[in-house]
Design goal:
- It contains eight helices and six strands; from the N terminus they run αβαβαβααβααβαβ.
- It is α/β, with parallel strands linked by helices.
- The chain has a six-stranded parallel β-sheet with strand order 3-2-4-5-1-6, with helices on both faces.
- Strand 2, helix 3 and strand 3 form a beta-alpha-beta unit.
- The longest helix is centred in the N-terminal third of the chain and has 25 residues.
Length: 204
Protein backbone atom coordinates (compact mmCIF):
# COMPACT_ATOMS: atom_id res chain seq x y z
CA UNK A 1 0.00 0.00 0.00
CA UNK A 2 1.11 3.53 -0.66
CA UNK A 3 1.02 6.17 2.04
CA UNK A 4 -1.98 7.74 0.29
CA UNK A 5 -3.86 4.41 0.26
CA UNK A 6 -3.05 3.89 3.96
CA UNK A 7 -4.42 7.35 4.76
CA UNK A 8 -7.62 6.65 2.85
CA UNK A 9 -8.11 3.31 4.61
CA UNK A 10 -7.56 4.88 8.03
CA UNK A 11 -9.99 7.67 7.18
CA UNK A 12 -12.67 5.20 6.04
CA UNK A 13 -12.24 3.13 9.20
CA UNK A 14 -12.43 6.22 11.39
CA UNK A 15 -15.56 7.48 9.65
CA UNK A 16 -17.20 4.02 9.80
CA UNK A 17 -16.71 4.01 13.59
CA UNK A 18 -18.03 7.55 13.81
CA UNK A 19 -21.09 6.61 11.76
CA UNK A 20 -21.81 3.63 13.99
CA UNK A 21 -21.67 5.85 17.09
CA UNK A 22 -23.87 8.47 15.46
CA UNK A 23 -26.41 5.91 14.22
CA UNK A 24 -26.65 4.39 17.71
CA UNK A 25 -27.15 7.84 19.23
CA UNK A 26 -29.96 8.67 16.79
CA UNK A 27 -31.60 5.26 17.31
CA UNK A 28 -31.68 5.84 21.07
CA UNK A 29 -34.04 8.82 20.69
CA UNK A 30 -37.67 7.77 21.03
CA UNK A 31 -39.60 11.07 20.80
CA UNK A 32 -40.43 11.83 17.17
CA UNK A 33 -42.01 15.26 17.68
CA UNK A 34 -42.27 17.65 20.61
CA UNK A 35 -42.95 21.35 20.94
CA UNK A 36 -39.87 22.90 22.52
CA UNK A 37 -39.05 25.85 24.74
CA UNK A 38 -35.83 27.31 23.30
CA UNK A 39 -33.86 30.15 24.91
CA UNK A 40 -31.20 32.26 23.19
CA UNK A 41 -29.31 34.34 25.74
CA UNK A 42 -25.85 35.67 26.58
CA UNK A 43 -23.88 38.85 25.80
CA UNK A 44 -22.87 37.89 22.26
CA UNK A 45 -24.46 38.97 18.98
CA UNK A 46 -26.94 36.66 17.28
CA UNK A 47 -29.79 35.84 19.68
CA UNK A 48 -32.64 37.34 17.66
CA UNK A 49 -30.81 36.49 14.44
CA UNK A 50 -30.85 32.79 15.39
CA UNK A 51 -34.54 32.98 16.29
CA UNK A 52 -35.44 34.49 12.93
CA UNK A 53 -33.33 31.89 11.17
CA UNK A 54 -35.57 29.28 12.82
CA UNK A 55 -38.62 31.26 11.67
CA UNK A 56 -37.38 31.00 8.07
CA UNK A 57 -36.90 27.25 8.44
CA UNK A 58 -40.42 26.82 9.84
CA UNK A 59 -41.94 28.95 7.08
CA UNK A 60 -40.15 26.82 4.53
CA UNK A 61 -42.11 23.84 5.87
CA UNK A 62 -45.40 25.72 5.62
CA UNK A 63 -45.81 26.52 9.31
CA UNK A 64 -47.68 29.56 10.58
CA UNK A 65 -45.48 31.61 12.91
CA UNK A 66 -46.14 34.25 15.56
CA UNK A 67 -43.68 36.95 16.63
CA UNK A 68 -43.98 39.31 19.59
CA UNK A 69 -41.28 41.93 20.09
CA UNK A 70 -41.16 43.07 23.72
CA UNK A 71 -38.60 45.88 23.41
CA UNK A 72 -37.64 46.72 19.82
CA UNK A 73 -41.09 47.81 18.72
CA UNK A 74 -40.04 51.13 17.21
CA UNK A 75 -37.22 49.68 15.10
CA UNK A 76 -37.60 49.46 11.33
CA UNK A 77 -35.97 46.06 10.78
CA UNK A 78 -35.04 44.00 7.76
CA UNK A 79 -36.53 40.86 9.28
CA UNK A 80 -39.92 42.58 9.58
CA UNK A 81 -39.84 43.66 5.93
CA UNK A 82 -38.77 40.19 4.79
CA UNK A 83 -41.37 38.33 6.83
CA UNK A 84 -44.16 40.69 5.74
CA UNK A 85 -43.83 39.03 2.33
CA UNK A 86 -45.23 35.81 3.79
CA UNK A 87 -48.60 37.44 4.46
CA UNK A 88 -50.87 35.67 6.94
CA UNK A 89 -48.29 32.93 7.44
CA UNK A 90 -46.55 35.31 9.89
CA UNK A 91 -48.42 37.07 12.71
CA UNK A 92 -46.06 39.89 13.69
CA UNK A 93 -46.63 42.16 16.70
CA UNK A 94 -44.14 44.85 17.72
CA UNK A 95 -45.33 45.76 21.21
CA UNK A 96 -42.30 47.39 22.81
CA UNK A 97 -41.55 51.09 23.03
CA UNK A 98 -37.77 50.95 23.06
CA UNK A 99 -35.17 50.08 25.65
CA UNK A 100 -35.83 51.10 29.25
CA UNK A 101 -33.07 53.71 29.20
CA UNK A 102 -34.90 55.36 26.29
CA UNK A 103 -38.41 55.45 27.75
CA UNK A 104 -37.24 56.22 31.32
CA UNK A 105 -40.77 55.45 32.47
CA UNK A 106 -41.18 52.21 34.40
CA UNK A 107 -44.99 52.28 34.48
CA UNK A 108 -45.08 52.70 30.71
CA UNK A 109 -42.59 49.85 30.24
CA UNK A 110 -44.60 47.54 32.53
CA UNK A 111 -47.81 48.35 30.65
CA UNK A 112 -46.15 47.67 27.28
CA UNK A 113 -44.70 44.36 28.50
CA UNK A 114 -48.09 43.31 29.89
CA UNK A 115 -49.78 44.04 26.57
CA UNK A 116 -47.05 42.12 24.76
CA UNK A 117 -47.41 39.05 26.97
CA UNK A 118 -51.19 39.14 26.56
CA UNK A 119 -50.59 39.03 22.80
CA UNK A 120 -48.11 36.18 23.29
CA UNK A 121 -50.76 34.18 25.18
CA UNK A 122 -53.20 34.81 22.33
CA UNK A 123 -50.74 33.54 19.71
CA UNK A 124 -49.79 30.53 21.84
CA UNK A 125 -53.46 29.57 22.13
CA UNK A 126 -54.00 29.66 18.35
CA UNK A 127 -53.85 26.02 17.15
CA UNK A 128 -52.82 27.10 13.64
CA UNK A 129 -49.52 28.52 14.93
CA UNK A 130 -46.62 26.08 15.33
CA UNK A 131 -43.83 28.49 16.34
CA UNK A 132 -43.88 31.64 18.49
CA UNK A 133 -40.86 33.93 18.95
CA UNK A 134 -40.87 36.12 22.06
CA UNK A 135 -38.12 38.52 21.10
CA UNK A 136 -36.36 40.23 24.06
CA UNK A 137 -38.75 38.71 26.61
CA UNK A 138 -35.65 38.14 28.76
CA UNK A 139 -35.17 41.91 29.00
CA UNK A 140 -38.73 42.39 30.28
CA UNK A 141 -38.15 39.65 32.85
CA UNK A 142 -34.76 41.07 33.87
CA UNK A 143 -36.35 44.39 34.84
CA UNK A 144 -39.33 42.69 36.53
CA UNK A 145 -41.84 44.15 34.10
CA UNK A 146 -43.71 40.83 34.20
CA UNK A 147 -44.36 38.31 37.02
CA UNK A 148 -41.70 35.66 36.43
CA UNK A 149 -43.60 32.73 37.95
CA UNK A 150 -46.66 33.46 35.82
CA UNK A 151 -44.58 33.71 32.63
CA UNK A 152 -42.77 30.44 33.37
CA UNK A 153 -46.03 28.64 34.13
CA UNK A 154 -47.58 29.91 30.88
CA UNK A 155 -44.59 28.75 28.84
CA UNK A 156 -44.54 25.34 30.53
CA UNK A 157 -48.28 24.89 29.92
CA UNK A 158 -47.99 25.52 26.16
CA UNK A 159 -49.59 23.08 23.73
CA UNK A 160 -47.57 19.89 23.14
CA UNK A 161 -47.02 20.77 19.45
CA UNK A 162 -46.01 24.42 20.01
CA UNK A 163 -42.39 25.58 19.98
CA UNK A 164 -41.59 28.88 21.70
CA UNK A 165 -38.29 30.74 21.29
CA UNK A 166 -37.30 33.35 23.89
CA UNK A 167 -34.45 35.77 23.22
CA UNK A 168 -32.52 38.37 25.18
CA UNK A 169 -29.59 38.72 27.54
CA UNK A 170 -29.62 37.62 31.18
CA UNK A 171 -32.16 34.81 30.99
CA UNK A 172 -33.53 34.07 34.45
CA UNK A 173 -32.35 30.79 36.04
CA UNK A 174 -35.98 29.66 36.33
CA UNK A 175 -36.45 30.07 32.57
CA UNK A 176 -33.24 28.19 31.86
CA UNK A 177 -34.44 25.38 34.11
CA UNK A 178 -37.81 25.20 32.32
CA UNK A 179 -36.32 25.27 28.79
CA UNK A 180 -35.60 22.26 26.58
CA UNK A 181 -32.71 23.97 24.78
CA UNK A 182 -30.60 26.91 25.93
CA UNK A 183 -27.87 28.55 23.86
CA UNK A 184 -25.64 31.22 25.37
CA UNK A 185 -24.10 33.52 22.79
CA UNK A 186 -20.56 34.27 24.01
CA UNK A 187 -19.06 37.64 23.22
CA UNK A 188 -15.54 37.19 21.85
CA UNK A 189 -15.29 40.35 19.77
CA UNK A 190 -17.80 42.94 18.57
CA UNK A 191 -17.36 45.72 16.02
CA UNK A 192 -19.34 48.13 18.23
CA UNK A 193 -16.33 48.28 20.56
CA UNK A 194 -14.25 49.53 17.63
CA UNK A 195 -16.66 52.40 16.98
CA UNK A 196 -18.89 50.81 14.32
CA UNK A 197 -22.52 51.79 14.76
CA UNK A 198 -25.46 49.42 14.30
CA UNK A 199 -25.86 48.92 10.55
CA UNK A 200 -28.89 48.29 8.37
CA UNK A 201 -28.89 44.70 7.17
CA UNK A 202 -26.50 43.58 9.93
CA UNK A 203 -28.05 44.65 13.23
CA UNK A 204 -31.54 45.58 12.02
Amino acid sequence: MTDETDDEARHRAKMAKRKAVQDAEVASKTIAEKGLLIVHTGPGKGKSTAAFGLVMRALGHGWTVGVVQFIKGAWDTGERHALDRFGDQVRWHSMGEGFTWETQDRARDVAAATRAFDKARELMADPSIRLVVLDELNIALRYDYLPLAEVIETLKARRPDLTVVVTGRNAKPELIEAADTVTEMTLVKHHFAAGVKAQQGIEF
